[in-house]
Prior knowledge:
The chain is α+β, with helices and mostly antiparallel strands. It has helices spanning 2-24, 26-52, 77-83, 112-118, and strands spanning 93-96, 101-107, 125-127, 132-138. The model has no long low-confidence stretch (mean pLDDT 80).
Amino acid sequence: MNKLLLMCMSVLVGGAIIGGLVVVGGPQHARLAQQDSQRLSDLRTLHRHLMCLGHPRKPLPQALADDSYCPGMRPGLRDVLTQGDPATGAPYAYHRLSDTAFEVCATLALDPAEARKAAFDQDTIALRANDTLCFIGDRAGSVH
């Protein structure tokens, strides 16, 4: 009788553990969510930096570089530029759309639509093909 009870309790506990992992996604899902969170933070840093560079009449740089001076440059900018994506190390995509407009993009591991909904700065975020999320900016409308 005790063995049967022990076996039933073991199956019940094991089922609860497996069920919990299915619901929350397990450690792999948590790791991907953390990487996506870092990507969003990095894109915000790059967006702020590009919005800060110069004034609306000064053209945006052709490529991302850490040698541009911005009075409000965050200390982590150099790390974002040199380390890139937290999972692959690839640099973030920078698209200069005009002298004042740009977008910086990253490929997310999880659902980018969910990441966009969770972000507090939705008006500067655009979803691109598949799993790409971009922060967009136009300095022509900003006052510096």
